[in-house]
Amino acid sequence: MIINILAGGPMAYLPNLHDYEGSDSIWVGVDRGVFTLLSMGIKPIYAFGDFDSVSKEELEIVESEVHHLHKYLPEKDETDLELALKWSMKQSADKINIFGATGGRLDHFFANVQLLSQAFSDNVSCEMSIIDQKNVIFLKEAGTYTLPKLNDKKYISFLPLTSTIEKLTLQGFKYSLIDRNISIGSTLCISNELISNYGTYSFSGGILIVVRSQD
């Protein structure tokens, strides 16, 4: 099962959400993202939020269309997206795609990237990615991984989420590395490219942010 979550970020940053529909996927709306899905003809199965970013009329539409509506007070300890993500991680999904989590407020964007790390602390094995019109963002723990070349995502960047990434090695990339420690704040691994159909990256410690981007 694939869980697609739409948060309330600007619509201008969204890819074509219909490309992510399928018989093995369900949609979850977050706050204004619920109304956005309905306006696109996509009916979310579950919805989460305090709904402070929709009008009274829009909320009435949401309440009439979505059967599993989790409504919260605005004064709470978690963001609406965190509440939806925590629920999603308990559903034994194979993959969780998050949309509407970029653009707009930068505090929300930074928090959303950090939310992906909850999969490690909660021992969730499914893939979790933030996707917008030009980027795919995901996190990896220490290990060895292979990336396929994507024609629509030329650039690949590696950024530490933790203080240090230990012994990062990049093979099959335009700019290769061997056992290089990368400290948080470094821009050494921005805008790399694959020179073959596949590339391999490995590291022995830390949590790595991987970003695949268009031109």
Q: What is the correct CATH architecture of the largest domain?
A: 3-Layer(aba) Sandwich
The amount of beta strand, in percent, is 35-45%
DSSP E strands, number: 12
Structural class: alpha/beta
User: What does the main sheet amount to?
Assistant: 12 strands, mixed
The structural domain count equals 2
Could you name the CATH topology of the largest domain? Rossmann fold
Span from first to last CA?
31 Å
Overall mean pLDDT stands at 94
Low-pLDDT runs of 5+ residues are none
CATH superfamily of the largest domain: Thiamin pyrophosphokinase, catalytic domain
Rg over CA atoms? 18 Å
The helix/strand order is EEHEHEHEHHEEEEEEE
Shape: elongated
InterPro entries: Thi_PPkinase, Thiamin_PyroPKinase_B1-bd, TPK, TPK_B1-bd_sf, TPK_catalytic, TPK_catalytic_sf
Organism: Pseudoneobacillus rhizosphaerae
Keywords: ATP-binding, Kinase, Nucleotide-binding, Transferase
Pfam families: TPK_B1_binding (PF04265), TPK_catalytic (PF04263)
